[in-house]
Amino acid sequence: MLGGLLVAGPDESSAQTTGSPWQVTARGDSVQFDTLSVRLRSGERVAVRGTLRVPEWRRGTSARRVTLRWLRFSGSVGTSGPDAPPIVFLAGGPGDAGTRAISTMPVALLDFLLVAGDLIAFDQRATGTSIPLLVCAPSAAVSPDLRLTRAQRDSLSLSAAHTCLAQLQASGVQRAGYSTGESVEDLESLRIAIGVPSVSLYGGSYGTHLGLAYMQAYPKRTARAVLAGVEGPDDTFKRPSRIDAVFADISQVASRDPRFAGRRPLLEVFDSLRTQLAATTPVVTVGSSEIRLDAFDLQRFVTDALGEQRTIVTLPSQLYAMAEGKLELLAPTAMRLRAARPLNAMNLLVNCASGASAARWAAIDADIRTARLGDAMDFPANVQCRTDELRSARAAGSTRSKAVPVPVLFISGTWDGRTPVANVEELLATFTFGRHLVVPFQSHGLMGDPDVVEASLRFLRGDHVAGARLIRTAPAFRQ
């Protein structure tokens, strides 16, 4: 621990002791390669590991460097040509690790990707096996039975961010080095280090935000891209009205389900629960703990559930159960929001650096006044990133994109409140060769959907994939 900063992972010296000799790239970065066996769901597989040292902040004056790592898996023999560009997998978050995601990736999805070419699982700076990892020490836990006002929640989140920033400064971290712009240059440094003229991109969630920025900066170095759950240049912070619209659609579909015949509409149930919790802040007992609940816990419970189809299909039953008195279902959410947890500084810094345009903040603020789910999905980053310490200084028009001549397959789920269909609709005009595949009733975690996997493979191999809205039946809701 350095100044309260938890720096995880192997140290710099261990990165120098094995593998090929260090080489200097055309960019002046240092790179080393070694071979190792990696355990995946499908079993052991040999990969080439790349280790790259780049400046922490390329526009800064410090000589401080960070270490980036990736794993490169060879494509299936005989299925992709020798000149096929490698596919770089860009994980989400920001803060998720590409190598970790690959290790847990469904076998069928990984096999499909390797048919299209070599696959590179890239650990973006301050993620996974890259060095350093920026994780600030936990702040104090909040007593589970304490009544919390919104002002108190804001104050606690701001205090945690302020303390974390002080820890970063004490450790010598250059905060400006942790941004999507720096990660774009990291990706270009990776391409140069492996000596290929172009790469294909395969990303989800924040990985699409990074991929879009890379294509804007280096369109001639991008062969093609598949982006699922798309976060555009000005989509880091979500529009509450769009999240509410997804919740309303789920509620409408649930109203046609025989399981809920004769029940009050789900939105009415939610509204009643929110009013009740705001007025009474009841205490529930779980084991030996007494936990106080409020309306924000309910809003966060719902926005968390909207992340995946498997949690969406249980949401109506859970809300009806709460209306019948089973408020203890909210206890895990309330406890998690009050727990002492390390703060992922990489996530905070990158999100705040992306920020939002003035027009976007104005639209968000207008939405919040009437939104059922409030700002629960983005909290606390939406509060922390609007302080003077972390506010992004975005020039007027900085979110406007120039035309990008890269073939891109965009994929959206109609039940995705985090990265809704509208995000892609606002981007398509910028992409001359863009296609949009819309998957009804899918949410944010849709990369493993069989139709999505098949379309992604065909597109990455250069086959024509038309933009379309798939035909799907609504999933069955369950307890």
Automatic annotation (TrEMBL):
Positions in coiled-coil regions: none
All copies of domain AB hydrolase-1, residue ranges: 85-233
InterPro entries associated with the record: AB_hydrolase_1, AB_hydrolase_fold, Pro_iminopeptidase
GO biological process: proteolysis
One term under GO cellular component: cytoplasm
Disordered as annotated region, ranges: 1-21
Pfam families in alphabetical order: Abhydrolase_1
A GO molecular function held by the record: aminopeptidase activity
Domain of life: Bacteria
Name of protein: Proline iminopeptidase
Organism: Gemmatimonas phototrophica
